Each structure stands twice: as C-alpha cells, then as structure tokens.
Amino acid sequence: MAKMFQKMIVIGSLLVLVLMSGCAEQTADPVSPENVFLSAPSVVIKEFNSQDIALTVTNNDTQAIDSVQLTGSLPLTVTGTNSINIPGKEGTAGSSVLSAQVTAPAYDADVNDSALTISYLSGMDEDGAQITKTASTPIDVTILPDVQLQFLGFVKDMDSLRTTAAESWELEAGDNATITFSVKNHGQSTIPAGLLTVVVDVDNKLMADQASLNITQAMAKSGTSYTKGLQIPVNDDAPNGETDVYVRLMYGDYTVDEQTLTLTVKL
Q1: What's the rounded mean pLDDT across residues 184-205?
Q2: Where in the chain is the domain with CATH 2.60.40.10?
Q3: 247 with 212: CB under 8 angstroms?
Q4: Prediction pTM value
Q5: Would you give the distance in Å from CA 170 to the centre of its chain?
Q6: Does the pLDDT at position 43 exceed 50?
Q7: PROSITE patterns this protein is in (predicted)?
Q8: Is the Cβ–Cβ distance between 177 and 169 less than 8 Å?
Q9: Annotation: CATH topology of 28-144
Q10: Architecture of 147-265 per CATH?
C-alpha cells in the first residue's frame, strides 16, 4: 500500500511538471514597437469635416501582429477604423494598409506634435492571452477653414457687383472682364480678417493674366464677406475664342474652394 501511495505521488509530481512546462511554453514576449513601422501621407482637412486616411503598417518581426487598429490621431479624432493582421516576416518584412476615418477639430487647433497611434496584439501572457502594444508615428496635419465662394460670376462692370452673375461672358479684346463674388463661412470658428485670398487665373495667358484680392472682413460662424469684385483686363491682341477662368479661394498655399467660369473673346 505504501508503495502504491509513493507511486501516485511520483505520477502526480510528473503531471505538475508537465503542466508547468506547458504554461511556460505558452508565454511569449510581444513584438516590440521598434519593429513596427508606420507610414502615412499628410492630412489636409477642413475643420469638423471627416476624411478617410490610409496608413501603411510594416511588421519587421518574425512574430505576427494581430487586430491592428488606429486608436489615436492627435489632434484629429478617430471616427472609424478597420482591423488587420500582419504575419511575421519571412525574409522580408510584411506590410499592409490600414484604413480609417478621422474628423478634424477647429482650423486653429494646435497641429504641433501631430501623430497617429495604432494598437496591436502579439505575444502571450501567463494566462495565455495576447498582449496589447501600441506604436506611433509623427504626421503632418493641416486644418483648413470651411469656407466657400458664393454668388460668383461675371457682371457688366464694378458698379454692377450686386446684379445677377453669369458663369460665362463674352466681350471684345481690350475690354475688362469683371467678376463678382463673396465668401461664406460654413465652419464653426471665426475667421480673422486677411486670412483668405481670392485668385482669378485665366487659363489662356494670350487672352488675359491673373488678379487677386484679399478678404479683409472677419467672418464668424455662418458669416459672409462683403460682395467683392475683380477686373481682368483682356489683352488688346487677344485671340478670339474661349478660355477657362479659374477662381480659387486660398488659405495660404491651400485651395479651399475652386470654381470655373468661361470667358469668350469675340471679333
């Protein structure tokens, strides 16, 4: 009987060792964020608007990373993200594209230290569960005011800026083409005076060149600028025919709205 009891103790000890060995084998270190590389194009977005972005994630580890998602996008807000799995590298590192949607704050938000952050699962803890890790990358973010040209078109002259405007206009070489417009703030933030510029650019430079005008009124939410006008002198030797006239609303070097008119020079 004593021998049987000793034998049971030995068998029980062996089972405990096997179980402990199995638990040890289940534990694995997670992929280090230093082996996860992120790459994303610059984000240019109007305030409080949403936009889809694509982030390339590269796994430079032999171990897979799972459930990769975008969890942060300072100063933007993540409003949607898909989830991808990336296998461990076999010779070369594997990359996949992570798609997500972000929403912008006010256009004057601080965009310094802008960054995207992902989370992923890898490795295994003592309970056999995958470990959550994060990785980040800096990103260039530009937030634009949500403004638009309105009541844009050709009119007879500078004394007719408040008359009905036309998308196309016909005149003779040597005449002045007059364009009327105003600017509407569709955003939530007040836009200071002097921040926006309207640029009129004639496509066919043999007919006419370009002109610009700064918007000198501040505009609060739902506000508008004064009705403005720009004159484009048509060259005395302009060829007859049509040309596109591009009217762009500029915020620094960025076009926040663009519309096209048609100018015809007749004989």
Answers
A1: 96
A2: 28-144, 147-265
A3: no
A4: 0.82
A5: 39
A6: yes
A7: PROKAR_LIPOPROTEIN
A8: yes
A9: Immunoglobulin-like (2.60.40)
A10: Sandwich (2.60)
